[in-house]
Design goal:
Layout (H helix, E strand, L loop, with lengths): L3 H8 L14 H8 L8 E5 L11 H9 L4 E6 L13 E5 L5 H10 L6 E4 L5 H11 L10 E4 L4
Parallel strand pairs: 1-2, 1-4, 2-3, 4-5
């Protein structure tokens, strides 16, 4: 099996190491998340519309390849209905991370919990705080769940 970094590089996401300015998050994600590989995790990524990469949602494709049995959910302020996802286990929703109302409506529309929530949207602490507050109760409790995000200061 390929490492998460190798998969991210294949899809050309900025979470890998393929390009000079990539963040190399997958080096750490691989260690933190590999316990979910054989499970059927529900994963939410906030901020999925990438400025570059292969396909419209390269990060979601990365998660799909890494977590073979996952249900992957992506939310973003910019969802283009002309760019559908072909994989049946990937679900998209248009939600503005800066809007408490939109995040609350999204939270109330789902009837399951997430094993993992990744916040890669605006990178503003205020927006991430809103997301965390609105979505935290949809995160499974226990040793195997988590909320990951990066903040630009």
């Amino acid at each position: 099996m390929n490492t998460l970094t190798e998969i991210a590089n294949k899809w050309e996401t900025d979470k890998g190491t393929r390009f000079k300015n990539d963040h190399n998050y997958c080096k750490y994600y691989d260690k933190l998340l590999n316990h979910l590989i054989e499970k059927q995790p529900n994963i939410l990524e906030i901020g999925i519309k990438a400025p570059r990469g292969i396909g419209s949602y390269p990060s979601l494709n990365t998660w799909d390849e890494y977590f073979k049995n996952a249900k992957i959910h992506g939310i973003d302020i910019w969802i283009d209905p002309k760019e559908p996802v072909k994989e049946s286990n990937i679900h998209l929703s248009q939600v503005n991370q800066a809007s408490k109302d939109e995040l609350t409506n999204y939270r109330d529309s789902i009837d399951f919990e997430f094993d993992l929530i990744l916040d890669d949207a605006s990178h503003y602490a205020l927006h991430q705080s809103i997301s965390f507050i609105c979505l935290f109760d949809k995160l499974k409790s226990g040793d195997y769940s988590g909320y990951l995000g990066s903040v630009v200061t």
